[in-house]
DNA sequence: GGACGCCGCCGCCCGCGGTCGGAGGCGGCG
DNA sequence: CGCCGCCTCCGACCGCGGGCGGCGGCGTCC
């Protein structure tokens, strides 16, 4: 059973830790999981602190984590596990009744690999465990939908805003992009092999067309339209 | 068979349109889907234009869409369907061999409800069809993982960058936020009931502490740190 | 061909913005 | 108590940035 320790290789069982404050839930999961040949429950925890501690001790492949737990909630526990050296290989699968936005996004931010609602069927849970065990991720369909919505919304804003840039000439867009990165007129001139005076003209035109009074406001617009991205 | 038209109610079959340029793939899917009692293939298309046209004509619940297709690719076809009045209820499930980032993100942006890779098993396909039919969403695990990565990365950057703001005093953060929205010193003064001279002092201090030479660079930093958000 | 408009280029003027130094009040700390 | 940090305000200097007008090149339309 536990002969093959360490790396979760080919046909070694997936080692799972179950963290939930309700004993009934834990035993239910344990029975369900242990019925499978390729899955073995190697530990249990009744709160967040225990979950972290047991994870450190048993180094499971997957942690089945409830969110609502005493002492330390599942999200914070997930963050601690993800932030611990040596536990990078441990995948956390969140399992909860509530699917509040904050919970989901915070959990993913904390480093969770999956997020299931407790109304999911047993086969879905088993499938999810196997998926996250190999390093992939899986979300409840309802949550996937919202994550996609979030993602699409961001880009939607960018697309719509980009149309404002249509009035600019190529040169104007170019200098505006550089202005958006905080460069001075002189620096832009060096960058584009232009006289600073010329750069000024382009900047001025861009400001008029975009309704910016300031070069600072031009930077704002550059960011809002996605002409420059907040990332590095 | 086609007695129950219109709304996809309780036990009416899920009406599916299959769009793929390879006849073998189409017939394979058709056989697989038609074997299920609750799923019925109501049409086929061999390119993007046909897919849009057939969708308009048959109003399926779900469109199984390949990306690589002649005339019009699956992503553009998806965008057209999502943008057509009266077809809002039609869910698009992308099915492709390639999982390039651009494909995935563009497809979700275009309005797709799901994204499967062709190495998925038949049961996964059937499950996906049923999931998107009820309005939820489903992605291949590998893709879910990358989407989460994207999402988490954004917030990660924001979190890390916010620490740069720790050196600022409360007032300095305040004025910096307003500078980040493109306000002039005078306007900031009115906003915070301060003399413009005072505002200058705070702005100067903030610039020194954050290493900004310009007020424009201060705007850049304000955005990068998430002190102001690109959205509204 | 001339007229017009857009683009890219430049020089001049001046006001906003950024820097420096200073001053007064207020709260916390040794 | 004296010291320090923060907030507030002021005046002076000066350089960048923004407004304005002008000039040449290129394409379009008449």
Characteristic terms for this protein:
homodimer; 232 residues; alpha/beta; Rossmann fold; Arc Repressor Mutant, subunit A; 2 domains; 6-stranded parallel beta sheet; 51% helix; elongated; DNA-binding
Characterization of the model:
The structure is a homodimer of 232-residue chains. The first copy, chain A, is of the alpha/beta class. In chain A, 51% of the residues lie in helices and 13% in strands. Chain A folds into 2 domains: 135 residues, 3-Layer(aba) Sandwich (Rossmann fold); 66 residues, Winged helix-like DNA-binding domain superfamily/Winged helix DNA-binding domain (Arc Repressor Mutant, subunit A, Orthogonal Bundle), CATH 1.10.10. Chain A is built from 10 helices and 6 strands, in the order E-H-E-H-E-H-E-H-E-H-E-H-H-H-H-H. The first copy, chain A, has a 6-stranded parallel beta sheet with strand order 2-1-3-4-5-6, sandwiched between helices. Chains A and B meet through helix 4, strand 6, helix 6 and helix 10 of A and helix 4, strand 6, helix 6 and helix 10 of B. Chain A binds a DNA duplex (30 and 30 nucleotides) through helix 7 and helix 9. Chains A, B: It holds the Pfam family GerE. Chains A, B: This is DNA-binding response regulator. Chains A, B: One of its GO terms (molecular function) is DNA binding.
């Amino acid at each position: 059973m536990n002969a093959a320790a360490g790396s979760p290789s080919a046909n070694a069982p997936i080692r799972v830790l179950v963290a939930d404050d309700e004993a009934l839930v834990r035993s239910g999961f344990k029975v369900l999981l242990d019925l499978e040949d390729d899955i073995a429950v190697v530990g249990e925890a009744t709160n967040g602190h225990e979950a972290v501690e047991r994870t450190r001790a048993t180094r499971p492949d997957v942690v089945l984590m409830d969110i609502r737990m005493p002492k330390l909630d599942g999200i914070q526990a997930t963050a601690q596990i993800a932030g611990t050296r040596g536990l990078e290989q441990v995948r956390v699968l969140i399992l909860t009744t509530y699917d509040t936005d904050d919970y989901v996004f915070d959990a993913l931010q904390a480093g969770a690999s999956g997020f299931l609602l407790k109304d999911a069927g047993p086969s879905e849970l088993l499938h999810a465990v196997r998926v996250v065990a190999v390093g992939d991720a899986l979300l409840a369909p309802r949550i996937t939908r919202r994550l996609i919505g979030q993602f699409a919304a961001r880009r939607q804003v960018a697309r719509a805003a980009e149309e404002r840039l249509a009035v600019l000439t190529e040169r104007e867009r170019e200098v505006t992009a550089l202005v958006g990165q905080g460069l001075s007129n002189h620096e832009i001139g060096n960058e584009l092999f232009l006289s600073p005076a010329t750069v000024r003209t382009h900047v001025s035109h861009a400001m008029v067309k975009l309704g910016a009074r300031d070069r600072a406001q031009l930077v704002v617009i550059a960011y809002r339209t996605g002409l420059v991205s907040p990332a590095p």
